[in-house]
Write a structure and sequence with these properties.
Helix content is 61%, strand content 4%. It is mostly helical and 601 residues long. β5 and β6 form a beta hairpin.
């Protein structure tokens, strides 16, 4: 009964903290939007005064200001944010520096407001995650609770940004945590709902994108959506690799780190001038909401261009050209060291290329494709699913963001096809690719945490074969021949453990034939001591750090009193037990492929 009460109090506390994180994330999302609007007003005075070439100066200055923040104070604020949260979750126990959320919001507002091509979701995700991590650190919560609040912050930030509570929840679970079991899901849902409710209260329940109601015109149209999904699987890989290719190009420029974001801003500004020129040729008009300032089609978050595409007011050539320029501008902005998200630009590109494909299909078979811009909507989800490897999130979030649930079948088939193709062609998505380039493979060892559930007392040998310090080499060889063991703890005359000896130590010292070396002369006295209370993951880590293949288990109160012995073979046995327990819990574990045995004549 007492244990049940403690668990109840523990969960109530975690739920309460999750609600607080959601509340803060909702308020932060509103403040972040206002911060972007404020920086926009400031930077837009530059082209108003200087004319069209002011669009070159504005992002250049924005990049310079961002560099000061990123290089000097918070390198974590560089780039699109989500990979840093993933790294924190997987390798830092959910911990983030307190300064990161504040500086990330300022740097991203400068990038977006100055005309850089990036989105709001990456910054608000990192800001929300940093908020959750900071609360956990202040309250000195354990690792599991810290990681849960980290995901709560990210998910609630996404939810508040896009008015998509379920989509934000799934983003946190699918992209960051790779799947969360048990009651940890409930705090994430709670924080997402509260954050969305806050934005509803202040900004209203507006949809993220202005799109007409799309319907499936003919069952055969699903074939075209399948084709779109397959094409976007290839396109998502090209986009991910191209993004980091341009990032590598910037890193090869031999200049100050403070100058790189400014150079990226300059390149983006030149694309903005080209875009403004092309807008006149294509007779393009963005679908700006009341109160929104004018930005060229490829600048900022790109919602005005995406809305215009969904409403069907953009021609096929403009869709293709602006989609390509949006990819370049995003890579220039973020690849050079700017700060912002990758999600919104990817949606914009998906809408552009999807809309162009829809117009082609409509021209070829008009009776089967009555609404070609429906392909723009599906293209948004398909491109991001292949790029970020988040298929479920994409389907749900696009329906929430447009309030259009009639396109579920096209979304599912296109997203699945894109995800399949991109997964076959490229192991990493755009988020994990950034970490892989740093040498961080967060998906490797997904189940290593299961070793925490296996105690050392279950695995260790309690009465191992031991050696005495006064034994001779010949006596040890007889014991090895009898036991077939290669590692032994060594005891003194008082049964105190004083060292370890492995078989190969017998042959390190060459002695005269008439002199038999003793175990005391051959043993290793600097050996690994561990407490019986250790978990097997800690045992494995200690062995790796000390480069040992065995450890003596001792009494915590009497360090020289041996109570057991463990080897790396025991760690492997513990891993087998851990995998078996995961399978009993219903976790799907991939079968281990058999090794190729080579017969040597």
């Amino acid at each position: 009964m007492m244990l049940a009460n403690q668990m109840f109090k523990h969960r109530v506390r975690l739920y309460t903290l999750a609600g607080i994180v959601g509340l803060i994330s909702g308020i932060t999302a509103i403040v972040f939007r206002l911060l972007i609007l404020g920086t926009s007003v400031i930077f837009l005075t530059i082209p108003q005064v200087l004319g069209i070439w002011g669009w070159v100066l504005a992002p250049t200055l924005g990049g310079l200001f961002v560099a000061i923040i990123v290089v000097r104070y918070a390198p974590e604020a560089r780039g699109h944010g989500v990979p840093e949260v993933m790294a924190s979750y997987a390798t830092q126990s959910g911990k983030m520096r307190i300064r990161v959320p504040i500086l990330k919001s300022i740097a991203s507002a400068l990038s977006i407001g100055s005309g850089g091509s990036c989105g709001r979701e990456g910054p608000i995700a990192q800001i929300g995650a940093g908020t959750g991590s900071t609360i956990a650190e202040v309250l000195k919560l354990d690792k599991k609770q810290t990681k849960t609040l980290l995901v709560c912050g990210l998910a609630s930030g996404i939810s508040a940004t896009f008015n998509s509570p379920l989509g934000g929840t799934l983003f946190g679970i699918e992209v960051i945590a790779g799947g969360i079991i048990g009651f940890s899901i409930i705090p994430i849902i709670l924080s997402s709902v509260i954050a969305t409710a806050v934005t509803y209260a202040f900004l209203g329940a507006e949809v993220s994108f202005q799109a007409p109601l799309f319907i499936l015109g003919h069952p055969i149209e699903l074939v075209f959506y399948l084709i779109l999904g397959l094409l976007f699987g290839f396109l998502s890989v090209i986009w991910s690799r191209g993004f980091y290719f341009i990032e590598d190009l910037f890193e090869r420029i031999k200049t100050s780190k403070y100058a790189l974001p400014a150079i990226g801003g300059l390149a983006t500004g030149l694309l903005l001038v080209l875009t403004i020129y092309l807008e006149g040729i294509f007779s393009y008009n963005g679908a700006f909401k009341p109160g929104d300032p004018y930005y060229p089609a490829i600048a900022g978050v790109g919602y005005a261009f995406t809305d215009a595409t969904l409403l069907g007011t953009v021609g096929i050539v403009a869709l293709g050209v602006f989609g390509f320029l949006k990819a370049l501008a995003t890579a220039f902005t973020l690849g050079s060291g700017g700060s912002g998200g990758i999600f919104a630009p990817t949606l914009t590109m998906g809408a552009a290329f999807g809309g162009a494909i829809g117009l082609i299909f409509a021209a070829l078979i008009p009776w089967a494709v009555p609404q070609p811009m429906a392909f723009a909507l599906v293209g948004m989800a398909a491109l991001f699913a292949g790029t970020a490897r988040a298929p479920i999130t994409c389907v749900v979030m696009l329906m929430e963001m447009t309030r259009d649930y009639s396109m579920i079948l096209p979304l599912m088939i296109a997203v699945s096809a894109s995800f399949l193709v991109s997964s076959v062609l490229e192991e990493d998505g755009i988020y994990t690719m950034k970490l892989s380039r740093r040498g961080i493979k967060i998906r490797q060892g997904t189940h290593i945490g299961a070793l925490q559930e296996v105690s050392l007392s279950e695995i260790m040998t309690r009465n191992p074969t031991t050696l005495r310090t006064d034994m001779t080499q010949a006596e040890v060889l007889k014991i090895i021949d009898t036991t077939q063991h290669t590692k032994y703890p060594v005891l003194d005359e008082n049964n105190q453990v004083v060292g370890t000896l492995i078989a190969e130590d017998l042959f390190h010292d060459i002695s005269p034939d008439d002199v038999q070396p003793l175990v005391a002369d051959m043993m290793e006295t600097d050996f690994l001591h561990l407490s019986e209370s250790c978990k097997m993951d800690s045992v494995l880590q200690a062995m790796m750090e000390k480069d040992e293949g065995h450890a003596v288990i001792v009494d915590s109160n009497q360090p020289n009193k041996m109570i057991g012995f463990v080897t790396k073979a025991d760690v492997l046995r513990a891993y087998e037990i851990a995998i078996f327990r995961l399978q009993q819990q219903g976790v799907d574990i991939d079968d281990i492929s058999p090794a190729d045995i080579i017969d040597v004549p």
